[in-house]
Write a structure and sequence with these properties.
Layout lengths: L12 H4 L2 H6 L20 H7 L4 H5 L2 H15 L4 E2 L6 H5 L4 E4 L3 E4 L21 H14 L4 E6 L1 H10 L7 H9 L1 H25 L3 E5 L8 H7 L1 H10 L7 E4 L7 H6 L4 E3 L6 H8 L4 E3 L11 H14 L6 E2 L12 H15 L2
Parallel strand pairs: 1-4, 4-5, 5-6, 6-7, 7-8, 8-9
Antiparallel strand pairs: 2-3
Length: about 350
């Protein structure tokens, strides 16, 4: 079934008219909406309490726990959207990849993909593989009411970097060696990951997610010419696969200032911007027809309140002429961030931008 034939997602009317979804659609908003990447997580004492003694991947597969953790920052901070609590490697684990998330390290893959024969590890993802996602989103949408829920997935390049390297990397030497040295194998790997990623996003949308975000966390390691040739086609395939549902699609990467225009070309409705590029310059690079999301430096939250407010005003001023703006950090909330600083930031943005 092509994206154009796909059924539209089931949107609660109250969530459809939320400030967050209006901003994603570049419509007038009552205030600039705010949410934070990694808003559900280690910065919250209530999160640490409910996760105590429970491995990360197990916590992602328990609908009751996923529901509670996803709701925690909505209750505490009053953010304009929830983001589904999961991890980008969950769909890989669901199809049988032998991996684990090791504390202090990140995802570690037992058998890295280095040869064509290794591709056999990547079978198609079915809704039954992630039935716990469907159950959790059903619970969440009933609890959230008018607050939209963002589904998410890891982009093909970022997933490939973990699978080829065997874990986190600073240099991506094995992944890049495959990309440059065996472009056909690399293309087949990313194409297969695009299908898995699209299937994972479809499950979330069909269960009730109001928007989806594709995290290409490590795409900033690429030169634009390599991104266009070796990565963009797979990301575009993911966005096209869910285009027919009518939900906003967000694209985000770290260190991607030189790639912003290309990331917009991949097909997202909203392009996420990290803290390195001002929002007005990011809009110029992305071009018209897209909303933008971002982009306060997460480390600003460790400064005194006056400094946080001053930097927030800078971001909002830079974004004042955008077609649509969702306020966020330029990357995820850092674990040692004071939760009260996030709560104050949400209130400050809402107050400054009230129409």
């Amino acid at each position: 079934m092509s994206a154009n034939d796909a059924p539209r997602g089931q949107q609660p009317s109250a969530a459809y008219d939320s400030a967050f979804l209006k901003a994603c659609r570049r419509e007038p908003v009552p205030h600039t909406p705010v949410w934070f990447m990694r808003q559900a997580g280690r910065s919250l004492p209530e999160y640490r309490k409910v996760r105590e003694g429970i491995p990360m991947l197990e916590s992602c597969m328990r609908p009751d726990l996923v529901t509670e953790i996803t709701l925690q920052p909505v209750r505490r901070h009053g953010v304009d959207a929830a983001i589904y609590f999961s991890d980008i490697v969950v769909p890989l684990k669901a199809i049988g990849i032998d991996l684990d998330i090791k504390p202090g390290v990140g995802p570690v893959v037992e058998r890295p993909i280095r040869t064509r024969e290794d591709l056999a590890q990547l079978r198609d993802l079915t809704p039954e593989d992630v039935a716990y996602v469907t159950e959790a989103i059903g619970l969440l949408t009933r609890e959230l009411g008018a607050t939209p829920l963002i589904g998410f997935a890891g982009a093909p390049f970022t997933l490939a970097s973990y699978l080829v390297e065997g874990g986190p990397s600073r240099t991506y030497e094995n992944a890049k060696a495959m990309m440059y040295g065996d472009p056909e194998l690399w293309s087949d790997l990313l194409d297969r990951l695009a299908d898995i990623t699209a299937a994972f996003l479809r499950v979330q949308i069909q269960a009730g997610a109001s928007a989806v975000q594709l995290f290409d966390s490590w795409a900033g390691a690429l030169a634009p010419v390599d991104y266009r040739r070796s990565v963009l086609p797979a990301s575009a395939k993911v966005f096209e696969a869910v285009a027919g549902y009518g939900v906003p699609r967000i694209h985000f990467g770290v260190g991607t200032g030189e790639l912003l225009g290309l990331m917009g070309e991949a097909g997202a409705d909203v392009v996420g911007v990290d803290w390195r590029v001002p929002m007005d310059e990011a809009a110029r690079r992305v071009g018209p027809g897209k909303a933008l999301q971002g982009n306060l430096d997460p480390t600003v939250l460790f400064a005194p309140t006056e400094a946080v407010e001053a930097k927030t005003r800078e971001v909002l001023h830079s974004a004042k002429d955008l077609e649509g703006h969702v306020f966020n950090l330029g990357h995820g909330v850092m674990p040692s961030t004071d939760p009260d600083a996030l709560t104050r930031l949400v209130e400050h943005v809402h107050t400054l931008t009230a129409r």
